[in-house]
Structures are given as structure tokens and as C-alpha cells.
Amino acid sequence: MNTIVLVAMIVIGLSLVLLALKLSGSGKPRSLSGPGEALEFLRGDYPEVGDGPVVMAADGSSAVLLLPGGLVGIVRVMGRHVATRLVDRSGIASVSRTGPAVVSMAFAEFGWSAMTVRFADEETADRLVAHLGGNGKGRR
What we know:
The chain is of the alpha+beta class. The protein folds into two domains: 1-28; 35-139, Pleckstrin-homology domain (PH domain)/Phosphotyrosine-binding domain (PTB) (PH-domain like, Roll). It is built from three helices and eight strands. The strands form two sheets. The protein has a four-stranded antiparallel β-sheet, sandwiched between helices. Strands 7-6-5-8 form a four-stranded antiparallel β-sheet, covered by helices on one side. The longest helix is centred in the N-terminal third of the chain and has 22 residues, at 3-24. The radius of gyration is 20 Å and the shape is elongated.
């Protein structure tokens, strides 16, 4: 087969696949629609989780369920995947305010990277920092 024809077929084929992916919406990252969906994801992995207030990131990329005793349930969207985690204060290496309505958390476990969450207002960020026992200024 002529090399030019073969290259043209490959380019056209790849273009059609990319167009189909674009039109299907599979390239769009997901986000959480609200506290109910965040609880649903968390309870899918941790059925024993009780009720508590849910604080949502302003962009829907993550949510934190505030449970008694400094326990938190974390729902985190990464691309099209959702990761959940149930941690107590000892599982969080540090929590700090890094800007207006912005909280950064580093985890004691190596497997979970640090996360930075921007909330809709400063009161929500303060509420999360207070629940985790942090002072909002960095390492606790």
C-alpha cells in the first residue's frame, strides 16, 4: 500500500475518534453536583458513615463531611474519577489557610497527596480548619 494513503487513513481515523470523544463529552472532567451526591459517593465506600454537615468546594471538585470527634469524610474528584477517604485528626499532617476561603491539607499517609480547596466563603474555610483542630497557619 502506498505510504501516503496509509498515513492519510491513520490521520483520518484518529481525527474521527477524537471527534467522537469530543461530541460524547467524555473529555469533560466531572464535578460534584451537591452535598447529596458527595454523601452518596462516601457511603458507597464507607456505609457506616453517619450524618453531618457537608462543606463543598466552590467548583464542586471536592467535599468534606464533618463528623463528630474530628473525623472527616473526604470526597475528591480527579478527572473523571472520584476518590473517597475517611480520616481522623491523626491522619492529617497539616491544615492551613493559604488564601481567602482557601484551605490546604496535607495527609499523613503517603498514598494521598495534599489537597487545596477553595470554598465559596471564608466562614466555610474557617469551619473546616476549626473542625480539624488546626490554627489555620500551617503545621499543627
